[in-house]
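User: Here's a structure from my thesis project, written as structure tokens. My advisor, Dr. K., wants to see whether a designed sequence matches the one we expressed. Can you design one independently, without my sequence as a hint?
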């Protein structure tokens, strides 16, 4: 089990370097001033906005996504003690989000030509990836809550997962809702926009970077706060024995 934890820790370190390392390096070499609070990650992947180095973050994100795949299996094995079906949904949604993330790096951001009949295919795939990962994290939170109630998982796992899941999702939802509202009902939304337009909370880029950090923290908590399979089996066996004695 110690060997497995070491391998998973090394995977987390490589994921961090591949994702945030290449994005940070690309942002440093960005032709214009890149401020992560206001610019979306797709600007770094765009041949139009970052013609010299757009391939660097694309390769880094693809590598990070591939390294995340073993963690999906680890997540499933450690959550199925709470609910096998929900654990399958969580790990399956994470795999789908990872695949969509890889596809989003292969379909570069551009708004000139349609790709497969879709004008903004990169944005569609990116949002799909975020949606699948949100489903995975929400389902994992439910498993953590159920496992905590049954003394199978730690309480802090549930609280950390809930914090890193619900806060970015709420921020993205409010940001997108205000953007839609400004298009549908400009008279209603203009006062709100005038107040928030200079705030980082108004910009999708801030929530993209926050969401990326939240996913990484989510994976770290999955590795360091979920008990070993042996401990889970022992706890489950003890509960079964107690139930048999009570009967």
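Assistant: Designed independently from the structure alone:
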């Amino acid at each position: 089990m110690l060997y497995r934890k070491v391998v998973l820790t090394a995977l987390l370190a490589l994921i961090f370097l591949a994702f945030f390392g290449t994005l940070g390096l690309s942002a440093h070499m960005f032709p214009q001033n890149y401020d992560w609070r206001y610019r979306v990650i797709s600007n770094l992947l765009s041949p139009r906005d970052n013609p010299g180095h757009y391939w660097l973050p694309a390769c880094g994100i693809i590598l990070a996504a591939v390294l995340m795949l073993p963690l999906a299996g680890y997540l499933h094995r450690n959550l199925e003690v709470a609910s096998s079906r929900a654990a399958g949904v969580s790990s399956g949604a994470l795999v789908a989000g990872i695949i969509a993330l890889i596809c989003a790096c292969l379909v570069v951001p551009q708004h000139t030509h349609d790709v497969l009949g879709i004008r903004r295919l990169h944005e569609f795939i990116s949002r799909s990836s975020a949606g699948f990962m949100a489903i995975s994290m929400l389902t994992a939170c439910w498993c953590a809550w159920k496992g905590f109630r049954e003394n199978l998982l730690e309480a802090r796992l549930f609280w950390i997962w809930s914090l890193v899941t619900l806060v970015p999702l709420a921020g993205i939802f409010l940001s997108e809702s205000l953007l839609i509202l400004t298009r549908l009902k400009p008279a209603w939304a203009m006062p709100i926009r005038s107040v928030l337009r200079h705030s980082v909370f108004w910009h999708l880029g801030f929530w993209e970077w926050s969401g990326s950090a939240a996913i990484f923290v989510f994976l770290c908590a999955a590795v360091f706060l979920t008990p070993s399979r042996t401990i889970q089996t022992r706890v489950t066996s003890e509960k079964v024995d107690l139930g048999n004695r009570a009967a």
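When you compare it with your expressed construct, this may help: Residues 2-233 form one domain.
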